[in-house]
Amino acid sequence: MDLKIRKNGESYIIDVNGEMDLYNSYKLKELVMKMLEKKVERFIINLENVDYIDSSGIGALIYICSTIKKMGFKLVITNIHGSVKKVIELTKLMGYFPITPTIDDALKRMEA
Amino acid sequence: MAPAAKDIQVNENSPLFEKTGMLHKEFPSDFRQIRYFTLLIVQSAPPDIKEINLLEQQISEVIKNAVKHGNKCDPEKKVRVWYDFSPEHAHLIVEDEGPGFQDLEKWNEFNRKRQVLLEGNDFEALAEYVSFRGERADDNDGGNALFAALEYWDGGFVFNSKRNVVAMLKRFPKKRRGVKVESEK
Q1: CA of B138 vs chain A CAs: smallest distance (Å)
Q2: Tally of domains within chain B
Q3: How many domains does chain A have?
Q4: Does the complex come out with an ipTM higher than 0.85?
Q5: Which residue segment(s) compose the domain that A10 sits in?
Q6: What are the counts of helices (DSSP H) followed by strands (DSSP E) for chain A?
Q7: What are the tens digits of pLDDT across the range B21-32?
Q8: Which pTM was predicted?
Q9: Which of B33, B140, B154 to mutate: most A Cβ within 10 Å?
Q10: Nearest C-alpha in A relative to B149
Protein backbone atom coordinates (compact mmCIF):
# COMPACT_ATOMS: atom_id res chain seq x y z
CA MET A 1 0.00 0.00 0.00
CA ASP A 2 1.27 3.40 -1.00
CA LEU A 3 0.07 6.68 0.53
CA LYS A 4 0.40 10.11 -1.06
CA ILE A 5 -0.67 13.43 0.41
CA ARG A 6 -1.75 16.49 -1.54
CA LYS A 7 -3.28 19.74 -0.38
CA ASN A 8 -6.38 21.47 -1.73
CA GLY A 9 -7.18 24.69 0.12
CA GLU A 10 -7.39 23.80 3.81
CA SER A 11 -8.00 20.12 3.07
CA TYR A 12 -5.42 17.37 2.87
CA ILE A 13 -6.21 14.56 0.43
CA ILE A 14 -4.63 11.20 1.19
CA ASP A 15 -4.53 9.04 -1.94
CA VAL A 16 -4.41 5.39 -0.94
CA ASN A 17 -3.00 3.07 -3.60
CA GLY A 18 -3.06 -0.71 -3.28
CA GLU A 19 -4.64 -3.11 -0.83
CA MET A 20 -5.72 -2.24 2.71
CA ASP A 21 -5.16 -5.54 4.42
CA LEU A 22 -3.96 -7.10 7.65
CA TYR A 23 -0.32 -6.40 6.76
CA ASN A 24 -0.40 -2.71 5.97
CA SER A 25 -3.57 -0.94 7.16
CA TYR A 26 -1.71 0.37 10.22
CA LYS A 27 0.28 2.66 7.88
CA LEU A 28 -2.78 4.78 7.14
CA LYS A 29 -3.57 5.06 10.86
CA GLU A 30 -0.01 6.11 11.63
CA LEU A 31 0.01 8.70 8.84
CA VAL A 32 -3.24 10.32 10.01
CA MET A 33 -2.01 10.39 13.63
CA LYS A 34 1.19 12.15 12.50
CA MET A 35 -0.85 14.67 10.50
CA LEU A 36 -3.04 15.33 13.55
CA GLU A 37 0.12 16.03 15.55
CA LYS A 38 1.00 18.60 12.89
CA LYS A 39 -2.39 20.28 13.43
CA VAL A 40 -4.08 19.12 10.24
CA GLU A 41 -7.84 19.41 10.73
CA ARG A 42 -9.41 18.47 7.38
CA PHE A 43 -8.87 15.04 5.86
CA ILE A 44 -10.09 13.44 2.65
CA ILE A 45 -9.22 9.77 2.26
CA ASN A 46 -9.37 8.84 -1.42
CA LEU A 47 -9.93 5.11 -2.00
CA GLU A 48 -10.17 5.34 -5.80
CA ASN A 49 -7.18 3.03 -6.24
CA VAL A 50 -8.09 0.54 -3.54
CA ASP A 51 -9.63 -2.69 -4.80
CA TYR A 52 -9.25 -4.81 -1.66
CA ILE A 53 -9.99 -4.10 1.97
CA ASP A 54 -10.33 -6.46 4.92
CA SER A 55 -11.41 -6.10 8.55
CA SER A 56 -8.05 -4.55 9.48
CA GLY A 57 -8.57 -1.90 6.81
CA ILE A 58 -12.12 -1.25 7.99
CA GLY A 59 -10.74 -1.14 11.55
CA ALA A 60 -8.19 1.48 10.50
CA LEU A 61 -10.94 3.61 8.95
CA ILE A 62 -13.07 3.22 12.11
CA TYR A 63 -10.14 4.28 14.31
CA ILE A 64 -9.36 7.29 12.10
CA CYS A 65 -13.01 8.31 11.87
CA SER A 66 -13.66 8.08 15.62
CA THR A 67 -10.41 9.90 16.50
CA ILE A 68 -11.13 12.79 14.11
CA LYS A 69 -14.77 13.00 15.24
CA LYS A 70 -13.72 13.17 18.90
CA MET A 71 -11.29 15.98 18.11
CA GLY A 72 -14.02 17.91 16.29
CA PHE A 73 -12.12 17.91 13.00
CA LYS A 74 -13.39 16.97 9.54
CA LEU A 75 -13.03 13.73 7.58
CA VAL A 76 -14.54 12.51 4.32
CA ILE A 77 -13.88 9.13 2.70
CA THR A 78 -14.37 9.15 -1.04
CA ASN A 79 -14.36 7.07 -4.24
CA ILE A 80 -15.39 3.83 -2.54
CA HIS A 81 -16.19 1.18 -5.13
CA GLY A 82 -16.31 -2.52 -5.96
CA SER A 83 -15.53 -5.02 -3.23
CA VAL A 84 -14.39 -2.22 -0.88
CA LYS A 85 -17.91 -0.79 -0.97
CA LYS A 86 -19.35 -4.27 -0.58
CA VAL A 87 -17.28 -4.99 2.56
CA ILE A 88 -18.35 -1.70 4.15
CA GLU A 89 -21.96 -2.54 3.26
CA LEU A 90 -21.59 -5.98 4.86
CA THR A 91 -20.40 -4.36 8.08
CA LYS A 92 -23.36 -1.94 7.77
CA LEU A 93 -21.13 1.07 8.28
CA MET A 94 -22.03 3.04 5.14
CA GLY A 95 -24.09 5.37 7.32
CA TYR A 96 -21.42 5.66 10.02
CA PHE A 97 -18.60 6.76 7.75
CA PRO A 98 -18.76 10.22 6.15
CA ILE A 99 -18.71 9.14 2.50
CA THR A 100 -18.96 11.04 -0.78
CA PRO A 101 -18.87 9.67 -4.34
CA THR A 102 -16.10 11.98 -5.61
CA ILE A 103 -13.29 14.23 -4.40
CA ASP A 104 -15.20 17.30 -5.64
CA ASP A 105 -18.14 16.27 -3.45
CA ALA A 106 -15.75 15.75 -0.55
CA LEU A 107 -14.28 19.22 -0.98
CA LYS A 108 -17.77 20.75 -1.10
CA ARG A 109 -18.68 18.86 2.07
CA MET A 110 -15.58 20.24 3.77
CA GLU A 111 -16.79 23.76 3.07
CA ALA A 112 -20.35 23.07 4.26
CA MET B 1 -40.48 -3.54 13.82
CA ALA B 2 -36.72 -4.00 13.53
CA PRO B 3 -35.60 -7.40 12.25
CA ALA B 4 -33.96 -9.64 14.85
CA ALA B 5 -30.17 -9.57 14.81
CA LYS B 6 -28.50 -12.64 13.43
CA ASP B 7 -26.59 -14.66 16.01
CA ILE B 8 -23.50 -16.77 15.60
CA GLN B 9 -24.80 -20.29 16.12
CA VAL B 10 -23.27 -23.21 18.02
CA ASN B 11 -24.54 -26.49 16.61
CA GLU B 12 -22.34 -29.55 16.55
CA ASN B 13 -24.94 -31.36 14.44
CA SER B 14 -25.22 -28.77 11.69
CA PRO B 15 -25.12 -30.35 8.21
CA LEU B 16 -22.50 -27.73 7.36
CA PHE B 17 -19.96 -29.91 9.25
CA GLU B 18 -20.40 -32.75 6.75
CA LYS B 19 -17.01 -33.08 5.01
CA THR B 20 -17.75 -35.79 2.46
CA GLY B 21 -16.35 -34.92 -0.96
CA MET B 22 -14.67 -31.71 0.20
CA LEU B 23 -11.09 -30.78 -0.63
CA HIS B 24 -8.71 -30.40 2.31
CA LYS B 25 -5.58 -28.44 3.13
CA GLU B 26 -3.70 -27.73 6.33
CA PHE B 27 -1.35 -24.90 7.13
CA PRO B 28 1.04 -23.88 9.91
CA SER B 29 -0.13 -20.86 11.93
CA ASP B 30 2.07 -18.38 10.09
CA PHE B 31 0.50 -14.93 10.20
CA ARG B 32 2.66 -13.70 7.29
CA GLN B 33 1.18 -16.28 4.95
CA ILE B 34 -2.53 -15.95 5.66
CA ARG B 35 -3.36 -14.37 2.31
CA TYR B 36 -1.15 -16.87 0.48
CA PHE B 37 -2.94 -19.78 2.17
CA THR B 38 -6.24 -18.17 1.24
CA LEU B 39 -5.21 -17.92 -2.42
CA LEU B 40 -4.28 -21.62 -2.44
CA ILE B 41 -7.87 -22.37 -1.47
CA VAL B 42 -9.61 -19.79 -3.63
CA GLN B 43 -7.73 -20.88 -6.76
CA SER B 44 -9.94 -23.96 -6.89
CA ALA B 45 -13.09 -21.82 -7.07
CA PRO B 46 -14.72 -21.47 -10.50
CA PRO B 47 -13.60 -18.15 -12.03
CA ASP B 48 -17.18 -17.16 -12.81
CA ILE B 49 -18.12 -17.03 -9.13
CA LYS B 50 -19.71 -13.67 -8.44
CA GLU B 51 -17.38 -11.22 -6.65
CA ILE B 52 -14.48 -13.61 -6.17
CA ASN B 53 -12.45 -10.82 -4.51
CA LEU B 54 -15.04 -10.67 -1.80
CA LEU B 55 -14.99 -14.45 -1.38
CA GLU B 56 -11.21 -14.30 -1.00
CA GLN B 57 -11.50 -11.56 1.60
CA GLN B 58 -14.10 -13.43 3.63
CA ILE B 59 -12.06 -16.66 3.59
CA SER B 60 -8.95 -14.73 4.59
CA GLU B 61 -10.82 -13.41 7.65
CA VAL B 62 -11.75 -16.85 8.97
CA ILE B 63 -8.24 -18.17 8.37
CA LYS B 64 -6.83 -15.12 10.15
CA ASN B 65 -9.11 -15.77 13.12
CA ALA B 66 -7.92 -19.39 13.25
CA VAL B 67 -4.22 -18.47 12.98
CA LYS B 68 -4.23 -15.45 15.28
CA HIS B 69 -7.04 -15.88 17.79
CA GLY B 70 -7.33 -19.68 17.72
CA ASN B 71 -3.73 -20.83 17.49
CA LYS B 72 -2.12 -17.61 18.77
CA CYS B 73 0.27 -17.78 15.79
CA ASP B 74 1.97 -20.86 17.29
CA PRO B 75 3.70 -22.41 14.22
CA GLU B 76 3.42 -25.85 15.79
CA LYS B 77 -0.35 -25.60 15.64
CA LYS B 78 -2.17 -26.27 12.40
CA VAL B 79 -5.15 -24.72 10.69
CA ARG B 80 -7.19 -27.26 8.74
CA VAL B 81 -9.53 -26.16 5.97
CA TRP B 82 -12.09 -28.23 4.08
CA TYR B 83 -13.64 -26.51 1.06
CA ASP B 84 -15.97 -27.05 -1.84
CA PHE B 85 -16.91 -24.54 -4.53
CA SER B 86 -19.31 -24.41 -7.45
CA PRO B 87 -20.80 -21.48 -9.41
CA GLU B 88 -23.74 -21.69 -6.98
CA HIS B 89 -22.02 -22.13 -3.62
CA ALA B 90 -18.92 -21.86 -1.44
CA HIS B 91 -18.73 -24.23 1.55
CA LEU B 92 -15.87 -24.06 4.06
CA ILE B 93 -14.95 -25.67 7.34
CA VAL B 94 -12.02 -24.14 9.25
CA GLU B 95 -10.51 -25.83 12.31
CA ASP B 96 -7.83 -24.56 14.67
CA GLU B 97 -6.15 -26.10 17.71
CA GLY B 98 -7.05 -23.36 20.14
CA PRO B 99 -9.40 -23.33 23.14
CA GLY B 100 -12.39 -22.18 21.07
CA PHE B 101 -14.22 -18.87 20.70
CA GLN B 102 -14.89 -18.14 24.38
CA ASP B 103 -16.41 -14.72 23.79
CA LEU B 104 -19.15 -16.01 21.48
CA GLU B 105 -22.06 -15.14 23.80
CA LYS B 106 -20.55 -11.71 24.52
CA TRP B 107 -20.19 -11.18 20.80
CA ASN B 108 -23.82 -12.09 20.12
CA GLU B 109 -25.00 -9.74 22.85
CA PHE B 110 -22.78 -6.97 21.49
CA ASN B 111 -24.14 -7.56 17.97
CA ARG B 112 -27.75 -7.40 19.16
CA LYS B 113 -27.14 -3.96 20.72
CA ARG B 114 -25.29 -2.88 17.59
CA GLN B 115 -28.21 -3.96 15.44
CA VAL B 116 -30.68 -1.91 17.49
CA LEU B 117 -28.53 1.20 17.01
CA LEU B 118 -28.18 0.54 13.28
CA GLU B 119 -31.92 0.13 12.88
CA GLY B 120 -32.44 3.41 14.70
CA ASN B 121 -29.74 5.18 12.64
CA ASP B 122 -28.19 6.18 15.98
CA PHE B 123 -24.69 6.67 14.59
CA GLU B 124 -23.50 8.63 17.62
CA ALA B 125 -24.18 5.77 20.01
CA LEU B 126 -23.03 3.31 17.34
CA ALA B 127 -19.51 4.68 17.79
CA GLU B 128 -19.23 2.44 20.87
CA TYR B 129 -20.39 -0.59 18.90
CA VAL B 130 -18.48 -0.40 15.63
CA SER B 131 -15.75 -2.81 16.81
CA PHE B 132 -15.96 -5.80 19.11
CA ARG B 133 -12.88 -5.93 21.31
CA GLY B 134 -12.21 -9.33 22.85
CA GLU B 135 -9.93 -9.51 25.89
CA ARG B 136 -6.94 -10.44 23.74
CA ALA B 137 -7.60 -8.03 20.88
CA ASP B 138 -4.73 -5.81 19.75
CA ASP B 139 -4.54 -2.56 17.79
CA ASN B 140 -4.36 -4.39 14.47
CA ASP B 141 -7.63 -6.25 15.03
CA GLY B 142 -10.42 -4.56 13.15
CA GLY B 143 -13.06 -6.07 15.45
CA ASN B 144 -15.60 -6.09 12.62
CA ALA B 145 -14.88 -9.25 10.60
CA LEU B 146 -17.65 -11.33 12.14
CA PHE B 147 -20.32 -8.69 11.49
CA ALA B 148 -19.54 -8.99 7.78
CA ALA B 149 -19.18 -12.78 7.98
CA LEU B 150 -22.71 -13.21 9.33
CA GLU B 151 -24.04 -11.14 6.44
CA TYR B 152 -21.89 -12.72 3.76
CA TRP B 153 -22.26 -16.42 4.65
CA ASP B 154 -25.98 -16.47 3.94
CA GLY B 155 -26.29 -20.26 4.09
CA GLY B 156 -25.04 -20.35 7.70
CA PHE B 157 -22.05 -19.58 9.93
CA VAL B 158 -21.90 -22.09 12.76
CA PHE B 159 -19.41 -23.27 15.40
CA ASN B 160 -19.00 -26.74 16.89
CA SER B 161 -19.49 -27.26 20.64
CA LYS B 162 -15.82 -26.61 21.46
CA ARG B 163 -16.00 -23.55 19.19
CA ASN B 164 -12.68 -24.22 17.51
CA VAL B 165 -14.28 -25.34 14.24
CA VAL B 166 -16.46 -23.06 12.17
CA ALA B 167 -18.46 -24.08 9.11
CA MET B 168 -20.00 -21.69 6.63
CA LEU B 169 -21.93 -21.63 3.40
CA LYS B 170 -22.38 -18.92 0.78
CA ARG B 171 -25.00 -19.27 -1.94
CA PHE B 172 -24.48 -17.50 -5.24
CA PRO B 173 -27.37 -16.62 -7.51
CA LYS B 174 -27.72 -18.90 -10.52
CA LYS B 175 -26.62 -17.28 -13.73
CA ARG B 176 -29.16 -17.08 -16.49
CA ARG B 177 -28.19 -19.18 -19.44
CA GLY B 178 -29.49 -19.03 -23.00
CA VAL B 179 -29.47 -16.77 -26.00
CA LYS B 180 -30.74 -13.24 -25.77
CA VAL B 181 -33.30 -12.62 -28.49
CA GLU B 182 -33.95 -9.08 -29.60
CA SER B 183 -37.59 -8.15 -29.56
CA GLU B 184 -39.28 -7.43 -32.85
CA LYS B 185 -39.77 -3.84 -33.81
Answers
A1: 11
A2: 1
A3: 1
A4: yes
A5: 2-111
A6: 4, 5
A7: 999 999 999 999
A8: 0.91
A9: B140
A10: A90
